[in-house]
Amino acid sequence: xxxxxxxxxxxxxxxxxxxxxxxxxxxxxxxxxxxxxxxxxxxxxxxxxxxxxxxxxxxxxxxxxxxxxxxxxxxxxxxxxxxxxxxxxxxxxxxxxxxxxxxxxxxxxxxxxxxxxxxxxxxxxxxxxxxxxxxxxxxxxxxxxxxxxxxxxxxxxxxxxxxxxxxxxxxxxxxxxxxxxxxxxxxxxxxxxxxxxxxxxxxxxxxxxxxxxxxxxxxxxxxxxxxxxxxxxxxxxxxxxxxxxxxxxxxxxxxxxxxxxxxxxxxxxxx
Amino acid sequence: xxxxxxxxxxxxxxxxxxxxxxxxxxxxxxxxxxxxxxxxxxxxxxxxxxxxxxxxxxxxxxxxxxxxxxxxxxxxxxxxxxxxxxxxxxxxxxxxxxxxxxxxxxxxxxxxxxxxxxxxxxxxxxxxxxxxxxxxxxxxxxxxxxxxxxxxxxxxxxxxxxxxxxxxxxxxxxxxxxxxxxxxxxxxxxxxxxxxxxxxxxxxxxxxxxxxxxxxxxxxxxxxxxxxxxxxxxxxxxxxxxxxxxxxxxxxxxxxxxxxxxxxxxxxxxx
Lengths: 271, 271
Prior knowledge:
The structure is a homodimer.
Chain A: H1 6-12, H2 24-29, H3 37-40, H4 45-50, H5 54-82, H6 88-114, H7 119-123, H8 127-136, H9 142-164, H10 169-178, H11 185-198, H12 201-227, H13 229-236, H14 246-266
Helix pairs in contact in A: 1-9, 5-6, 5-8, 5-9, 5-13, 6-10, 8-12, 9-10, 9-11, 9-12, 9-14
């Protein structure tokens, strides 16, 4: 029950991607510490310079649009799942988690607007993939909803933190901050473990559910990567930017899978 | 389109209830200005003294429980209605409104806890009335949802501000603050008026909807008043507290109705 917040774990973890791992902490703590000022200030000069490259800027807007819509659709899902809460206390917990997603969404929108992008237009290309994910993984009960919040948010946080390594300091900071306080890990772990204690058969059903979540998430992520050239180009790197070769991509997936397994284990579930 | 926020209008309006109208502004601005500190500080000595009366304290916990559950259920409703949004921009607006309700709910919970009350237990007596209201007024489309948010939140804000007149300064401030930023009036007025411009028949349907909301709200409010003795006693006043006689209650309903009519008029609807 001492599990730290999912996003915190993802943010603090050293990813070890070549050429970028040592810069992470400096990047996150650099600049202003207030979340909202990031969206309105012009940013550091290094970030401003990086964003002058139109190909890079397009990729950043794409990525921020994906993260922003991810938060908005996570809000909808948590609010929907809150309706299945067994009592008022649990309903209030999920409502709080949903509200946090909206706060993150609003900060990302501000940052997008500060970059001169229309947040709504930036999100549009990702609506279908996220909506499909949520339709295919609609919770049929309260516990499935909790596992989705924990496992899904954790996976998303891991993935975005990895990508954030390739970004300018300002954008990286906005993304990392938007992944904070997600998934309310302790609450979810407590409720899922208690349910398994009451009825051990729950563990088998939820383990299957976790595997399904992972599969659907990978399916939609691949679809997005195939459709969005700018995002793929970002991952591939450029003359002046480190990128991911096939071996690095393989290691990234290994890390994502390992963290997923750890989260399932925290819940008392086989991955 | 220059309509101020619903809650702001309610909070600033002088209610004119005898013996308490002049104290409002002083009460709201007294004490610490930060919202969260209200829940954790011991409060002003006058408030602390008032809350030593167990009958009064019970009524305050009742009232705060009602307001808190009202916010939580408004969150659920707004989140549900966000699913019917015609586009991402409108969805994001409603998500923002829903998140604001959660923030208010959390501050009320903190204040209840600081008073030594269990927020969950305080809310419990009001769950049925609010849930019944929402079941009976479930939106069948986006516009109905907007009218409910505007008219329902406005009515609730008016009602609670009136009752807040009878409370100690700390409690009054917490309640008034919890009514701020509700209903995002400008956004709703804009969308409803635009829909009427596109198709005038919409106005007749939504006018009926507004009347139904008012009727259902009064039904549930009466039910709560009949069931909760402490709350009724609060309104009736005591030796050292002003209360509402029948004439004053009648004037209160007149004011609520007048404000409702004004809000309907803002939307371009007959009350």
